[in-house]
Amino acid sequence: MILGTPMPTVPYVKPLSSEQKELIHRLVYFQDQYEAPSEKDMKRLTINNQNMDEYDEEKQSDTTYRIITEMTILTVQLIVEFAKRLPGFDKLVREDQITLLKACSSEAMMFRVARKYDITTDSIVFANNQPFSADSYNKAGLGDAAIENQLSFSRFMYNMKVDNAEYALLTAIVIFSSRPNLLDGWKVEKIQEIYLESLKAYVDNRDRDTATVRYARLLSVLTELRTLGNENSELCMTLKLKNRVVPPFLAEIWDVMP
């Protein structure tokens, strides 16, 4: 080093506040707690996936479809339970709580799918440890562009190495997103700001060299989620045209017209 040359300055990064640390800790805890269905819930499934090979092609398609829809119901129920425990959710009026839950469920589900993505098989591993690839969705009559985009999104999240804290914060940000017909939209935005600031602080402290780029990429995910959520709604309508039964719980929460 040449004498007289000033030392390069290391940009100051504000550490996470104690409140932000506690918030992230709670989010990760609840995310883990509502990560997978209970053994009791799994036993309620009407179809045992291990017996799929016993059916002919048509019955196998119906069986695969029922497995996917039943697992989707359990996943959405877990998302609802997670959302109810988020700091700030209980401060909203019941009408806004319902609006947020219905609007966020399909988007938040994409995060759950991405967390279950297996790169070696390019598939989603369900709670029963059964991998479901694009071919599996094809057999169930679900193999359209929406599924391919969902897998592509999962690969993107995998390659970004999104960790548990980032997933939890992103899910909270999605839940507290501005939606049509909110009575207290300003309050939802204020709550979301807390989670956005916590995510920014977390990313800044996780990797200072790439924090700005990483934070921007994580936020870009939210736009992609809106697209995937819309595709999910379109898929549900397509299923009805194909005379596939959309379970009442999903039809209600996703506003699938009868």
Automatic annotation (TrEMBL):
Q: Which CDD domains match?
A: NR_LBD_EcR
Q: Name one GO cellular component term.
A: RNA polymerase II transcription regulator complex
Query: Could you provide one GO biological process annotation from this protein's UniProt record?
Result: ecdysone receptor signaling pathway
Positions of the NR LBD domain: 19-258
* Domain of life the protein comes from: Eukaryota
Q: Which GO terms describe its molecular function?
A: ecdysone binding; nuclear receptor activity; RNA polymerase II cis-regulatory region sequence-specific DNA binding; zinc ion binding
Keywords of the record, alphabetical order, are: DNA-binding, Metal-binding, Receptor, Transcription, Transcription regulation, Zinc, Zinc-finger
Question: Does this UniProt record's set of keywords contain RNA-binding?
Answer: no
Enumerate the PROSITE patterns for this protein: NR_LBD (PS51843)
Family of the protein in this entry: Belongs to the nuclear hormone receptor family. NR1 subfamily.
Stated name of the protein: Ecdysone receptor
This chain's source organism reads Schizaphis graminum (Green bug aphid)
